[in-house]
Design brief:
It contains 1 helix and no strands. The chain has one domain (1-52). It starts with a helix and ends with a helix. It has 52 residues and is an all-alpha fold. The mean pLDDT is 93.
Length: 52
């Protein structure tokens, strides 16, 4: 009985860890896409400044 409880707890912890890892991956992806958008804006501003 006790071993079963322990196994259940371990499983719950591992699934929580997996969820947190997925959240982390999502956050990294969002940060990267934001950086790319900012980079594009900066490039456009530089091109505009050079063109005028």
């Amino acid at each position: 009985m006790k071993e079963d409880e322990h196994a259940k707890r371990t499983f719950i912890q591992s699934s929580e860890t997996r969820k947190n890892k997925l959240k982390l991956v999502d956050n990294v992806r969002n940060a990267v896409s934001r950086l790319l958008v900012v980079k594009q804006m900066i490039v456009k501003i530089i091109v505009f400044a050079v063109a005028t």
